[in-house]
Amino acid sequence: VNERAGSIVAIMVNDSISSLISNEVNRFKIDLENEGYTTILREVSKSVKAETLWNMLRREYSVPGRFMAGAVLIGKFPTESNSETGEKTDCVYWNMAGPYKNTNTLNIWVSRISTQGLSLPRGRMDEVSRLKEALDANHRYRTGLSRLPHTGYWWALPEFMDCYPKNGATILEMLPDSQFLKPIDAIQKGGELLDETSHTTSHGIGNLWYHPTQIRFALLTSCGQSQNAQEQIFGRGGGCVLSVGATQTTYTGAFQIIDDRSDSVFRFQLANGESFGSALVTQYAFNDRYRAMFYGDLSLRMKMAAANRVPSVSSITANVTAGRAPLTVQFSTSATDPDGDPISVYEWWPENYCGVNEPALSGTTTSLSHVYRVPHLYKAEVLVKDSYGACGWLTKDIAVAPEPGKPLRINCGFPYTGSSTLTSYYVPFGDYVDKDGNTWLHDQSYTNGTWGKIAKDNQLMLSGSVANTEDDSLFLSYARDVSAKTGIEYKIPLPDGAYTLRLGFADMSNSEVGKRIMDISAEGNVLENSFDIVAAFGAKTAGFISKAIELKDGMLDILIKTSASSPSGVSGYAIVNCIEIVPQGSTFSEKSILAEPEFNVHQQLNVLHLSLNNGSKERDDADIAIYSIRGQLLQRIVVNNKILASGIDCGSTWPCGMYYVKARVGKRLFMKSAVLVR
Fold it and tell me: Cβ distance 278 to 3 under 8 Å?
């Protein structure tokens, strides 16, 4: 019996993008109808609430005389918390009997093709582009244009191996081949099913950088993996059409269907051509309905397309793998297809594949010449496709050192990865261009042949407004010393000679002096002892220190350590926001710090005379503040026309001693010291 004949699938499309993907949605509708489904297409308001959406599904379900199998939500739709544990799950929408938010009863299946909550990389991959790619993958699978091996993979960390007592043998109830393989490798090797149990990041799926996910159906039992599950259906040119993950901490067996005796009915249904959604409604084979998210299309069946093995790239060669910018590299590659099919496309990414940038060259050529002009470590890649879209790829590291005679600028700590692991390779769109057009390289771990940080420190990113600069981004990311206080260390290969080293700082955490103390050295020579950012520039204020250095060994070593006298805790650890290294005779990026206005402080009789003139007749965003040597605010003066014209006297009753005076003009902040003597 065709379980699809007469069954209704509701296609719910967010009205904010419906006109932009109408061709793909209509094609999806036709594909469903060609398989025997009856479809209902509804445009839904972008501001729809979860309960309203649930009621819409209930109305469609409750129409007399018809059977509703499920629904696919296309575009951004709300997620909802279940009434049992309060965690978000798509199973809320499966219960048509009520009450709302209850997941005990599952009457229909609901899945989503959505970028809701997904971080969209920069480049071509906006929401619409990614939805189109997911719908394209769905169509290619349904029509046999995309073909992958009929292999089932299972994988578990050692502590979870007892979840698979038959060593994945029950995969053979549904598929002709069963293999134990780490998910990141299975995704490249290609297959029909992946059933894995691990911890959040141990499977390596998040390291794919939007490569094609060549697993049709991915079941990810890992805590909080709904975003990684979601990403699988959006890999560039990928073949994943359904991916399941959890929104929160989940437990063994959550989305496991392999080697579980109680799931035999479910496996039998899949093996006999029922859709994933229908099989789950008949027997909900998963142990988790409180956190389950279903990305892709549950109307699909296994083995809808014929089997096809993925091509293999046997080699990628380069005439040179390291050198100074500009570096010209000649690449060549060879690839074969195990089924004897021709390689239809060679795609070249000499500056790293990330799924959001287009290849530098796409076609039938097996060679490429590329010039590297920016010093980074690159993972050059060639990706090949057969006539059914199955992919194979291989990479080659290219290390590019700074160009002689040119300034080198580093945006320390960026990009932030969410952990202490700093990227080693160039990230497309990751370099920062300041207001004057200067390029600041994103940070990277040190590798022979190029520059980088000895990766034993954390890198973090803050938010907020930074005074004294128009380039806040340079001062909101930073490298930080670790608790062991081993220091922040950079190694930069440069020709011998004279340089100016400029280190940029902004302390966005401390507002008082003495809270973060650092020792700074270069080439083994002390540049600053007990350096205090707040004392030098003020709180949340950008500033540079500049030092002349002489390089004699071809490698500039910079070390920034937490001083022994610095208070304990992360707010006392050494940091650095950006680094600029300028060869003698080159130009500095002066405008990273704004130009100083005419600001003067001097003793006149028994008072301090202050004047500020920024060339303006009227100001409403400037003031002057006077502090004691201990950092106590003594007086704040709002700048007006009188002060601009003649200055102002203050401190007639203050004791003798040193005072700090800060002038603020917009985002610019400047500080001077003065001694009051009577």
Answer: yes
pLDDT tens-digit profile of 595-638?
Answer: 545 656 666 666 777 776 654 444 456 777 777 655 667 777 77
The 10s digit of each residue's pLDDT in 296-307 is 999 999 999 999
Distance CA 182, CA 257 (A): 17
Confirm whether pTM is higher than 0.90. no
Judge whether 444 and 453 are in contact, CB under 8 Å. yes
Contacts for 38 with CB less than 8 Å, ≥ 6 apart: 6, 7, 8, 9, 66
Q: Is 465 left (phi over 0), alpha (psi -120 to 50) or beta?
A: beta
**Cis check: omega of the bond before 583, within 30 degrees of 0:** no
Q: How many C-beta atoms lie closer than 10 Å to residue 48's C-beta?
A: 16
User: Distance of alpha carbon 299 from its chain centroid, rounded?
Assistant: 31
Q: Look up residue 446 and give its amino acid.
A: Y
Alpha carbon dihedral 180, 185, 190, 196, in 10-degree steps, equals: 50
Do 645 and 614 touch, CB atoms closer than 8 A? no
Distance, in Å, from the CA atom of 228 to the CA atom of 246, rounded to the nearest integer, reads: 10
Kindly give the pairing relationship between strand 327-336 and strand 292-296. Answer: unpaired
- What gap in Å lies between CA 324 and CA 196, rounded to an integer? 44
Please tell me the distance from the alpha carbon of residue 500 to that of residue 586, in angstroms, as a whole number. 9
Q: How far apart are CA 573 and CA 589, in angstroms?
A: 27
Q: Using CA atoms, how far apart are residues 644 and 228, in angstroms rounded to an integer? A: 58
Question: Taking the CA atoms of the chain, what radius of gyration do you get in angstroms?
Answer: 31
